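Input/output pair, single chain:
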Amino acid sequence: MVDFCKKDQKMGEKNKQRKSIFGKWWEPVRKWFYPTWLLYELSIRFYDYAIAVHNYFIEHQDYLASYVGEISTQTLAIFCSVATFIICSAFLTMPACFLLYTFFKTENVSATPFEDKIKKYF
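Output:
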């Protein structure tokens, strides 16, 4: 019976979140910094994707205009580029930022020693 109590006590000590190598001031900041940085980086990438989609439609405007007209081609280019940005942001950026925020807010999400090691460096 005593052995189980000692094991539980040791496991409880391992479940504590390790301190960051950047100091105590970094711990409350990191749960907001990393998701915000990810949101910024992915937004820039998805904006570039949206511009590329728009440019693709404009480059092929002569071919598409024969079917739907010039104004419709420009409208389609704008709609598809905005849809690309919104879909990528909604289905990729927001869930990834939420998971990253949860990862740093919760002490031990996966209950693995690797998580403790990686959090120390972030």
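The mean pLDDT is 78. Helices lie at 2-14, 26-59, 61-68, 70-105, 113-121.
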